[in-house]
Design brief:
By secondary structure, the protein is mainly alpha-helical. It is built from four helices and no strands. Helix 1 packs antiparallel against helix 2. 9% of the residues are buried.
Length: 203
């Protein structure tokens, strides 16, 4: 192989290294979002723990009519804690939908010239001493284009289906969360009514 062909292979090798760097960035992106979701889930667990703790305290305080003033404060704490829990839960749902929607875009090649998933061995096998660098690149792009066309429609449908599925799941989670909110609001109403009765009975 002459010096010109060697230079072409070096150039293609650099593009292959670019592909590896792009893939690593993609994995880094996945890791960052996985870490963010993990933190959001942890926040949800903490908020839910606060709600549960305050509910238990209220149940204990309801056993003694002398705790009326403290009960009022606890009910306000419960209201605030549950709002924070709902907010954290909604943030996690929205983040999941955003990640599902953005992930397909992260997979697209960002460098110009050869596509990111071009097979280096296929390109090198096509190199001849009379080829220019542009000939090699053009042939690789054309070959990749023909191979990609048959998959493009299925890929787009898959991406659209994934996003729709994520949104449907998010809608279901929001419905469950709304049911939890309604249930807690009813519980708070009952507690306030019972507290009012205790205040009337108090001498």
């Amino acid at each position: 192989m002459d010096e010109g062909s060697s230079d072409k292979i070096d150039e293609l090798s650099e593009k292959q290294r670019g592909k590896i760097r792009e893939r690593n960035r993609r994995f880094d992106w996945q890791g960052i979002n996985a870490e963010n979701l993990g933190k959001l889930k942890e926040a949800i667990g903490c908020k839910k723990g606060v709600v549960t703790k305050v509910q238990r305290e209220i149940r204990e305080l309801m056993k003694d009519q002398a705790n009326v003033s403290v009960l009022k404060e606890k009910l306000e704490q419960l209201k605030k804690a549950f709002k924070e829990f709902v907010s954290a839960h909604a943030t996690t749902i929205d983040s999941r939908v955003k990640i599902r929607a953005e992930w397909p875009r992260q997979k697209k090649p960002t460098s110009r010239g050869l596509p990111a998933d071009t097979n280096l061995r296929e390109v090198v096998d096509d190199v001849s001493p009379s080829d220019s660098t542009s000939d090699v690149g053009s042939r690789a792009v054309a070959k990749h284009s023909r191979r990609s066309k048959s998959r493009s429609t299925c890929s787009k449908e898959s991406v659209g289906s994934s996003v729709l599925s994520a949104r449907a799941k998010a809608a279901a989670r929001r419905a469950i969360l709304q049911a939890e909110v309604t249930s807690l609001e009813r519980w708070q109403t009952l507690q306030k009514e019972e507290l009012a009765l205790q205040m009337k009975r108090k001498p």
